[in-house]
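Priority: medium. Attachment 1 of 2:
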């Protein structure tokens, strides 16, 4: 039986070593959750040389803090899905040996695939339960700023490349904030919008509730202005699935909102274009369908182990002109690591969903349930969207995903067995 409460060592240890690096750990989590803004800030500063290193440095700091705390006797319980992550990481490490003919490619491919998983694995040892709410606030606040920036870009009609529009498509612009594409911004927003409204439902503090609702509405508008169908699909499908499984009462509301959205001209055009025969021909001739077929063909040459790390479908392979982006992260994993890698990767994320459902959603009562469902929706949205984008190739997205996974699971451990209120609150205020 897995414990669902914070271990006694966390609550009662009086040793200074158990809190070693407490402030640094919080700031590392803040920065990793705010990856996009921190990265942009470094790029335009004299520290631009850290652009490709600072995330790794932050993760290394968390690892050192965790190791020191464990060395001094701190005992914490990891997440249940960690075992699946361990098997996937071990398998990918083995593939480095398999790719010794191209060691740099293999190592870079390994880094891209597993680096940000480590964030969530470390969080139980570096984050105190009392800090989880403020960390959630900080991470979600950054996405609110991105949403506001997206609305501003739409208002000023920011210039975009012609390649971001389908043939014959006319839109004012497609927003991207500080990221490189609308898809990256859409992934960030689809993951954090549910959390904004979940925090609005849980928190009783009037000023913060206003910030949540205002930030949530701006972020929804920015998500719309990305005109990214994958983000719309991810969030819409995730909300629908969670509603069907846990909250059927909201289905009529979702149906009405869906009908209204469908008849907004720009949404209608983007959605109906998917059913255009010309789109299908183009997709099979040189678009996603062709790329997915190529992933299968690549895997077929070595079904169990694939082409090898860094050899197919992702950033490392494309930067060395070995292949194109697969535009489907599961296809990328299949082509690169074979059937074994895909099974282990999917098992890890299914285990994450299951742990959130059983350890957080099932325990949450009253208003807390809305935040629990929001966390489940956020994770599910990214996993659905990944069928049409290489989302875990984006360090912004991968970092934020695993930060949210870790924080929502740690928050679930603070929930009492039976309560309609969040622990530590007075007069309906979330601390």
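Attachment 2 of 2:
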């Amino acid at each position: 039986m897995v414990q669902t409460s914070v271990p006694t060592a966390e609550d009662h240890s009086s040793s200074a070593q158990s809190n070693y690096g407490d402030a640094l750990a919080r700031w590392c989590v803040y920065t990793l959750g705010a990856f996009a803004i921190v990265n942009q800030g470094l790029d335009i500063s004299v520290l631009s040389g850290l652009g490709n290193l600072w995330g790794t440095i932050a993760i290394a700091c968390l690892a050192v803090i965790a190791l020191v705390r464990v060395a001094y006797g701190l005992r914490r319980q990891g997440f249940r899905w960690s075992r699946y992550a361990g098997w996937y990481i071990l398998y990918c490490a083995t593939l480095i040996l398999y790719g010794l003919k191209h060691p740099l490619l293999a190592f870079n491919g390994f880094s891209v695939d597993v680096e940000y998983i480590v964030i969530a694995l470390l969080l139980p040892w570096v984050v105190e339960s009392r800090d989880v709410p403020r960390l959630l606030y900080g991470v979600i606040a950054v996405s609110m700023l991105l949403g506001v920036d997206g609305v501003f870009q739409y208002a000023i009609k920011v210039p975009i490349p012609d390649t971001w529009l389908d043939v014959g498509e006319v839109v004012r612009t497609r927003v991207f904030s500080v990221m490189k594409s609308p898809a990256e911004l859409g992934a960030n927003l689809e993951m954090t919008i549910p959390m904004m409204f979940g925090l609005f439902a849980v928190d009783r503090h009037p000023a913060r509730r206003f910030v949540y609702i205002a930030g949530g509405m701006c972020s929804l508008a920015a998500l719309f202005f990305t005109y990214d169908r994958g983000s719309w699909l991810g969030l819409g499908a995730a909300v629908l699935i969670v509603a069907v499984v846990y909250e059927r009462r909201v289905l009529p509301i979702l149906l009405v909102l869906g009908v209204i959205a469908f008849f907004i001209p720009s949404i209608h055009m983007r959605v109906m274009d998917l059913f255009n025969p010309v789109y299908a021909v183009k997709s099979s001739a040189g678009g996603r369908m062709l790329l997915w077929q190529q992933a299968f063909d690549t895997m077929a040459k070595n079904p169990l182990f694939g082409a090898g790390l860094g050899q197919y479908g992702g950033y490392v392979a494309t930067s060395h002109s070995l292949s194109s982006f697969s535009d489907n992260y599961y296809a990328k994993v299949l082509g690169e690591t074979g059937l074994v890698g895909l099974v282990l990767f999917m098992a890890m994320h299914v285990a994450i969903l299951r742990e959130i459902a059983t350890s957080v959603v099932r325990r949450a009562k009253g208003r807390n349930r809305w935040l629990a469902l929001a966390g489940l929706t956020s994770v599910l949205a990214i996993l659905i969207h990944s069928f049409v984008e290489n989302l875990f190739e984006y360090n912004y997205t991968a970092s934020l995903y695993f930060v949210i996974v870790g924080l929502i699971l740690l928050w679930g451990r603070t929930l009492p067995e039976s309560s309609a209120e969040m622990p530590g609150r007075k007069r309906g205020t979330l601390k």
